[in-house]
């Protein structure tokens, strides 16, 4: 059995699968392919890939439906997902992130950039599994098991959601700038214009429910994790 990371490539266009697969294999990955949404779900659940490259427009089930089902399944909840979207389709990108995708890249894309995105996601997934525990207010982050509990109750998060919230909690009370978050969590460099961060924060707030006020916005700068004014910590 290979010890190389396994990447699932789900796209109904054979030439896209071949291009992505060739470049990922050159970079040291193993690959498995799916030509439609149902094949993608079967492969993800059966093979448990280390990451998934998932096209939005596919027959059977589209990429958005597949992403949502993967995020609702404990077996595939934490597998990093990069969505492939059509150039200029902003709504598809936002919808993909809202369904639980970790990142997106627009077609036509640079194969080198896609490989770098996959490598960055896997590096950050590996780092999350190291370390011990962080406690802040009602939040307890167990880095070894990638598990968050709030007042003793388990909160289901994707790897990137966990990484994002842990980064902010580890710097409690400090405004963490957008560029720093994008670099540390997604591996972006330079001045990147993306809705990825904002959409992930929105999803996190929805999941946190009554504790959403701990995740606060510093307009024009970034985000800060701190106790709401009504909570004494």
Automatic annotation (TrEMBL):
Q: Which residues, as ranges, make up the DNA-binding region of this protein?
A: 131-227
Domain annotation OmpR/PhoB-type: ranges = 131-227
- Cross-referenced InterPro entries: CheY-like_superfamily (IPR011006), OmpR/PhoB-type_DNA-bd (IPR001867), Sig_transdc_resp-reg_C-effctor (IPR016032), Sig_transdc_resp-reg_receiver (IPR001789), WalR-like (IPR039420), WH-like_DNA-bd_sf (IPR036388)
Q: Name one GO cellular component term.
A: protein-DNA complex
Q: Name one GO molecular function term.
A: phosphorelay response regulator activity
Query: Any idea which residues bear 4-aspartylphosphate here?
Result: 55
* Organism of origin: Roseimicrobium gellanilyticum
Residue ranges of domain Response regulatory in the record: 6-122
Q: Which PANTHER family does this UniProt record tie to the protein?
A: DNA-BINDING DUAL MASTER TRANSCRIPTIONAL REGULATOR RPAA, REGULATOR OF RPOS
What is the protein name given in its UniProt record? Answer: Winged helix family two component transcriptional regulator
Tell me, what is an example of a GO biological process annotation in this record?
A: regulation of DNA-templated transcription
What Gene3D superfamilies does its record include? 3.40.50.2300, 6.10.250.690, Winged helix-like DNA-binding domain superfamily/Winged helix DNA-binding domain
Q: What keyword terms does UniProt attach to this protein?
A: DNA-binding, Phosphoprotein, Transcription, Transcription regulation, Two-component regulatory system
């Amino acid at each position: 059995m290979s010890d190389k990371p396994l990447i699932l490539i789900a796209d109904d266009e054979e030439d896209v699968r071949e291009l992505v697969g060739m470049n990922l294999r050159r970079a040291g990955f193993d690959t498995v392919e799916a030509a439609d949404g149902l094949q993608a779900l079967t492969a993800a659940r059966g093979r448990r890939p280390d990451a998934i490259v998932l096209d939005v427009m596919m027959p059977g089930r589209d990429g958005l439906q597949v992403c949502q089902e993967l995020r609702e399944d404990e077996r595939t909840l934490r597998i990093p997902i990069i969505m492939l979207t059509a150039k200029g389709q902003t709504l598809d990108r936002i919808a993909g992130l809202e369904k639980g995708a970790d990142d997106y890249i627009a077609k036509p894309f640079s194969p080198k950039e896609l490989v770098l995105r996959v490598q960055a996601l896997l590096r950050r997934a590996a780092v999350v599994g190291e370390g011990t525990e962080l406690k802040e207010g009602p939040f307890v982050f167990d880095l070894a098991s990638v598990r968050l509990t709030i007042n003793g109750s388990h909160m289901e998060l994707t790897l990137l959601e966990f990484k994002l919230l842990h980064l902010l909690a580890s710097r409690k009370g400090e405004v963490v700038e957008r560029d720093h978050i994008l670099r540390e969590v997604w591996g972006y460099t330079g001045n990147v214009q993306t809705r990825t961060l904002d959409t992930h924060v929105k999803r996190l707030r929805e999941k946190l429910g009554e504790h959403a006020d701990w995740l606060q916005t510093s307009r024009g700068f970034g985000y800060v994790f701190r106790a709401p004014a009504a909570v004494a910590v």
